What does this fold into?
Amino acid sequence: MRALTWQGTEKVSVETVPDPTIQEPTDAIVRITSTAICGSDLHLYRVLGPYIDRGDVLGHEPMGIVEEVGSGVTNLKVGDRVVIPFNISCGHCWMCQHGLQSQCETTQVTEYGTGASLFGYTKMYGQVPGGQAEYLRVPHADYGPIVVPDDGTPDDRWLFLSDILPTAWQAVQYAQVPEGGTLAVLGLGPVGQFAARIGKHLGYRVLAVDPEQVRRDLGAKHGVEVFDLTKDLVPELVDLTDGRGPDGVVDAVGMEAHGNPMAGFAQRAAGLLPDKLAQKAIETAGVDRLAAVHGAIDLVRRGGTVSLSGVYGGMADPMPMMTLFDKQITIREGQCNVKRWIDDIMPLVTDPSDPLGTLDLTTHRVSLEDAPHMYEVFQKKQDGCVKVVLDPAMASA
Ligand SMILES: NC(=O)c1ccc[n+]([C@@H]2O[C@H](COP(=O)([O-])OP(=O)(O)OC[C@H]3O[C@@H](n4cnc5c(N)ncnc54)[C@H](O)[C@@H]3O)[C@@H](O)[C@H]2O)c1
Ligand SMILES: [Zn+2]
Ligand SMILES: [Zn+2]
It folds into this structure.
């Protein structure tokens, strides 16, 4: 089959690789009909190379049609239309039973001391072949896949259940905004767009920040008050919230933040070191860009909550402990526990009026063969790009 593979820092290519096969009774094979590129893939593209091997298949936001199931999979049948959550979780361990599927004890990666395995996401997360491919082997298919109606609705209606919609949902839940309160969202990429829309849906006032005009415009279209990224933004937003600041701030930016050019250099440099040295640098030497999380801490009101869905790396990054303590700030964070939120979100995505605008996010639907070019377009935010969906059945442009 054809699959998008990692080949080096900022280099991916579509290659012919062996077709996946059933290896465990709880596996399924899915023929992919849509598979998105995520902001998290950009970390692999640029920073996390030391944890990937050349030829690894990327991608963790897929959906498609079940082609084959193992003998232990009774919840799916061949022909079902399914969305595949990016966490690989078993459904029966203590963590899964407690709604912490991203910490699944069956698929945790003990070698790296990390949480549940993820599709297409480095050795730290199990080095499981990803979903930017024609076919995907789905481990623990007796629990993970979400069956959606096969009724001619466009894939985009369902596809984002794989990651960014539940991620945004969790981010807003974790932000602990009181009824009628104010939510700020930093970053209006795909995750931030959905977080802002979910905030509106829940009746909050939503203020959102992004340096990109196209993304601000899309936010504004959904009733969000949008702001460009300027140095003195904090006083402006605090002024708008009775001088206190928003009740909760979602950081939907993560370590690709703009605002600290030196860190950008350090990230790039780490990506160029031999693997072992670079792993050390990423884990300990503070190669992150902390602009967004530091901004969130400055912005949130005293006693408020900062909710991080943006991904961060290093251990040695300076955090303003005095401010955190003095302002009495709660921080919540982590990989999304996708399956935990599906029952809450499903009524919104099945609603024909599409209240979260699932059909108003994808700017580019292209063939799998065009993926390498689209990684670059998405990373550089060219051509009005907000969300890219790859279609393995489409002929290359
Ligand atoms: N926790 C999870 O489970 C989970 C799941 C999916 C994605 N993520 C993470 O969420 C983050 C966002 O993902 P995405 O797909 O929306 O990516 P994205 O890269 O498209 O979006 C990031 C946005 O932040 C904006 N931005 C950059 N610096 C900023 C700053 N200082 N202040 C405000 N905005 C700024 C960018 O212009 C961009 O629009 C990434 O870090 C990604 O890894 C986490
Ligand atoms: Zn993702
Ligand atoms: Zn589990």
User: Anything to note?
Assistant: Residues 338-350 form the longest helix (13 residues). The chain has a mean pLDDT of 92. The chain is about 30% helix and 20% strand. Residues 89-90, 93, 95-96, 104-106 surround zinc ion (ligand 3) (CB under 6 Å).
